[in-house]
Amino acid sequence: MIKVPLDVPLARPTLGSAGSTGTWRILKPVIHYDKCTRCRLCYFYCVENTIDLEKNLYPRVDYEYCKGCGVCAQVCPTAAIEMVREVK
After folding, report:
1. Residue 13 burial by CB count (10 A; 0-12/13-18/19+): exposed, middle or buried?
2. Beta bridge partners of 27
């Protein structure tokens, strides 16, 4: 597992820089907090910058801007993020 110090500076795009998702997303990430080790890889790899960290370092997805690409689920070392079909 990769541990990144809290004081590492990051350059990230502004939140939702690619625009709102609308109604076209097919899959969305669901975080299983019982499996999450708070490694922050999902946060670092999120292409759309839609994963933010709570004060306790648990990730939180902003579904208004998440595109459902699945990168966060792919990089999660504990399979704590599951891509599930979007229910409309």
Report:
1. exposed
2. 85
CB under 8 A, 24+ apart: contacts of 47-52: 47/71, 48/13, 48/16, 48/17, 48/18, 49/12, 49/13, 49/14, 49/15, 49/16, 49/17, 50/15, 50/16, 52/15
Question: What is the number of alpha carbons within 13 Å of residue 6 lying toward its C-beta?
Answer: 5
CA 33 vs. chain centroid, Å, equals 13
Q: Domains (ranges, CATH) in the chain?
A: 27-85 (3.30.70.20)
- pLDDT tens, position by position, 37-50: 999 999 999 988 89
Model pTM? Answer: 0.76
